[in-house]
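User: I'm preparing a small set of examples for a lab meeting where we compare how different chains pack in three dimensions. I only have the primary sequence for this one, and I'd like the structure in token form so I can line it up with the others. Please keep the answer compact; I'll paste it straight into my notes.
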Amino acid sequence: MSQTDRLRSCKAIPALRPVAIKLHVKCIKRAALNLLNAFGVPAMVAIVCAIVFGDDAPERVVKLPAAVDPAAWGGDHVHQPMPQFITGDECLFCHRTNIGTTWPRNRHFLTLRSADPKSPALIALRENPSTREFADQVQFLLGGNHQNRFLRRTPDYGRLEILSASWTPPHGGKAGRLARTDAPHWDDQTFGKSCAGCHASGVDSQTLAFSAISLDCFTCHGDVDLEHSKDGKLAILSPQRRDPPRVVVSICGQCHIRSGTSRSSGRAYPNNFVAGDNLFRDFQVDWSDKHLDRLEPIERHILENVRDVALFEKNDLDCLSCHAVHEQSTEKHQQLAERAICNNCHLPDQPKAKTRPLGGRRIRLCGY
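Assistant: Understood. Below is the structure token output for the 368-residue chain.
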């Protein structure tokens, strides 16, 4: 006998109505857990309101968000050859005055950069007895304020080795320090399998080879039509066009969602993503409130905004509403009207300078 039939039988016999109530509660609990896993806290609120108010529930009570399939639109380049894209050096020939003057200092450009022998990270590597022999072999540094990794070229095209030791820069009054120095060694697998997708450009998910060091213009603007010099609207994210928020969050999310996985490759970065693709046709993400609650404020802020756009089609706010990527300016961020998502980082009813403690749960993949 099904749960529903048992419930009806119990209700028909007065003496068994207490049993019917228990079964009813059990059904509600099961439904509540299913909805909580699918939609989070708003679903729970809706259930409580339905129990209390029944058909008289007021319209202004929180309702279940109408989630859409984030993979339903657009296409992808999964397992397809990487396009023969225009390189950033070619782009800067024309964009040398409006982009070229600031790009060498841009974080996207510096995410993987030539190693400066005078950098604190390399000085520390050279002064440590366990790592001294590796210092002169380092050709690139990866990372920024949280962690630096040391890399060198391999004989193979588009491949780098990463040193097991790492450098944590000074922060919050704490001195910088080297970590994992017990048995330092070069690793020729980790960068290609875990890091290349977000720290290099044109990565082939099958060969793990990349086409360009750091993030090239191709990463955000895609395979640009040469005719874009006559018609700026042909370039994705061009000021002459307004790409839909779902396109914007796919482009930014390819690197800034650090907790997703490619269904097709199993890698922590997308499989041959090209700007303009729908990231979520292949990249799977845990959208649940439970997962968001475990993230530190900035990671949660990113994923919650992407979820609002990709699942709930809230198109009034995307990454470019606040972030000016080329200028690295916070002006748009400061001018934006206050809304609930701001509370991921800022404390409610407090001056904007008052923020929640940043940091917290580490993303194991990146080590910070």
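A couple of notes for your slides: Residues 70-85+215-368 form one domain. Strands lie at 112-114, 140-142, 148-153, 160-168, 177-179, 186-187, 200-201, 212-213, 261-262, 283-284.

User: Perfect, thanks.
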